[in-house]
Amino acid sequence: MDVTVSELLELFLQSPLVTWVKTWGHFRSGNDDNLAVYMELVDGIILNQIMLQIDPRPTNQRINQHVNNDVNLRIQNLTILVRNIKTFYQEVLQQLIIMNLPNVWLIGKDPLSGKSMEEIKKVLLLVLGCAVQCERKVEFIDRIQQLDIETQAGIVAHIQEVTHNQENVFDLQLLEVPDVAPEELEALSRNMVFHLRRLIDERDERMEVCLQVAQQPAGQVREGPGPGALVMGHSPGPGSSSQACTPLPTPQSSWSSFHGG
């Protein structure tokens, strides 16, 4: 049986990630209007405001405050957001995002599709990872701890996707640890080789698309999937299945490690 858009929205808005975002209190619409709340998320205004609280360094960002369902304005806002997220991970946290970045073209063009909702979840996941590792992390974690235990457990699981899974986000500081065990170093090397091959494959695929478009007669270029469409989804790396089976700690036992990190 096909799932309706309203059902998809309801499931999405009940997720721990969205519950966490709502604690920031930036929404103009009431919580009763699912579509309005969701569109505020995908328009990128609220998420850019949250990101500026996490990382106030970007001071010259022109965020479009009135998207009014304009696809281009929505994509511009999301592009700024993803760029700032990537920069924060690299420059502040010394971490490299290995997972495919959120497909802002897909979100902007077709925000109400199930695939777009998965891409927005990816945005929220990366923002969450910034929040619990930034200078104000104690304040932001305390806010999470005000939520119910079940929601906290879901948020902890999401946090570990970006803090404990080197196939999603790679901690560059691991390369500077002097006493890395040989087996750990070997595993890291295999992982990096895997992702290097993936990047080469994606580069070659993009080159083929560019050549195909360039060879088509003027006026006959078909509309393609747009920038970033080749990087939808996350390609699981070696060892991902074993990590998926690792039992997660309870929220109470997890927050102490984030506070003290």
UniProtKB/TrEMBL annotation:
Boundaries of every Calponin-homology (CH) domain copy: 11-131
Similarity field: Belongs to the CCDC88 family.
Compositional bias ranges of the Polar residues kind: 238-261
Transmembrane segments: none
MF terms in GO: dynein light intermediate chain binding; guanyl-nucleotide exchange factor activity; microtubule binding
Keywords assigned by UniProt, alphabetized: Coiled coil, Cytoplasm, Guanine-nucleotide releasing factor
Region Disordered, residue ranges: 218-261
Cellular compartment(s): Cytoplasm
PANTHER family: HOOK PROTEINS, PROTEIN DAPLE
A GO BP entry: cytoplasmic microtubule organization
GO cellular component terms given for this protein: centrosome; cytoplasm
A Pfam family recorded for this sequence: HOOK_N
Top-level taxonomy: Eukaryota, Metazoa, Chordata, Craniata, Vertebrata
Major localization listed first in the record, in broad terms: cytoplasm
Name of the protein described by the UniProt record: Coiled-coil domain containing 88C
